[in-house]
Design a protein that fits this description.
Layout (H helix, E strand, L loop, with lengths): L1 H24 L6 H20 L11 H29 L6 H5 L1 H30 L7 H14 L8 H20 L2 H18 L13
Amino acid sequence: MLEKKIIKIIEIFTLGFVFPILVVYFSLSNYILIFLWIIFLYTFIIFIKLYKEANLFKNAFNLIKLRKYFFFIILRWFFALIVLYYFTKFLFPEKLFLLQKNDNTLLYKIFILYPIFSAFPQEFIFCTFFFKRYKSLFKNEKTMIVMSSLIFCFAHIFVINWVAPLLGIFGGLLFALTYSKTKSLLLVSFEHALYGNTLFFLGLGWFFWGGSVGN
């Protein structure tokens, strides 16, 4: 039991802290999407092999539960949208609606591809895998929620600016809370995609992607 616990501690420390530091140190930020999917495949294989979750999507399609939290998520997002708009307008006016000014086509592509290739694998790693794999390391679920949000925040240091980690800590907390209440990978991935696409729509997405690296 102790040996398994040590392995999990090493694993969470490596994936959550060492790996992001190495990405920054070796200037590999441009390949972050590839690394994300490598980690996703690693965690998915472990998840299926060790936990044999035949009901992985059991809660994901619980329509009654999803309907209950869906409207709450939309309402919360609406208020966040207002805050993020003024945050961008007053602090980074040159970034406001940046993609619309330069490349509408790219924005549409992001709206379609981001939920699938970024939001979904992230939420599997930081929520579904994290809450199942590391449950034994924490005294209660509140501590797990905090740790999940901290690791989610730290994972965004690769962009080398303060905006992404700052927004990441709040986003990570919201997503972890949603998953803790619903255990729905589908719902938390939708929420992540909603906020992610909103950031790109407003112009803050610049701080989360290669355009901000080194600036």
